[in-house]
Amino acid sequence: MAFLGLLWVAGTPMIDDRLLPAWEALIAVRGREGAPIGEQYGERAAQNVSVILAGKLPPGVAASWVGELGWIVVADRLLGEDPKVIAAYLVHELAHAEQDRGASERPDSGY
Ligand SMILES: [Zn+2]
């Protein structure tokens, strides 16, 4: 299993070219003492997310986690925004991805 773990850590979700600046902004995030927080986000994304893409979403929805597919979808109308803004949405959706993964490990958790 350790071998599989290494593969996951080394992997990256497939990322829509148009979201690469946001992904890079995410990976570059550092904590107050210079801790490489963004790299941790990237590793967790590699474990939980298969695809990150831009697409049409309903008005008022900036990004969405599609758990059945392991996709994060970012509203394409956000593509002109500062990549850091989009990175913040990615962080939010990554939290959903992690919650989902935790839930599937505990099938009786009831949500
Ligand atoms: Zn949410």
Describe this structure in words.
By secondary structure, this protein is an alpha/beta fold. It has one domain. It has helices at 2-10, 20-27, 37-48, 83-105, and strands at residues 14-15, 51-55, 63-66, 71-75. The chain has a 4-stranded mixed beta sheet, covered by helices on one side. A hairpin with a 4-residue loop joins β3 (63-66) and β4 (71-75). α2 (20-27) crosses α3, α2 (20-27) packs across α4 (83-105) and α3 crosses α4. The longest helix is centred in the last third of the chain and has 23 residues, at 83-105. It is globular, with a radius of gyration of 14 Å. Residues 1-10 have low confidence and may be disordered. It binds zinc ion. Zinc ion (ZN) is lined by residues 92, 96.
Describe the SSE topology.
Elements: H1 2-10, E1 14-15, H2 20-27, H3 37-48, E2 51-55, E3 63-66, E4 71-75, H4 83-105
Parallel strand pairs: 1-2, 2-4
Antiparallel strand pairs: 3-4
Residues 92, 96 line the site of zinc ion (ZN).
Chain oligomer state: single chain
Task: Strand order, main sheet: write it out.
Answer: 1-2-4-3
Helix and strand run: HEHHEEEH
User: Into which percentage range does the β-strand content fall?
Assistant: 5-15%
Shape: globular
The assigned structural class equals: alpha/beta
Number of helices: 4
How helix-rich are the residues, as a percent range?
40-55%
Number of domains: 1
Present as ligands are: zinc ion
| Uncertain residue segments | 1-10
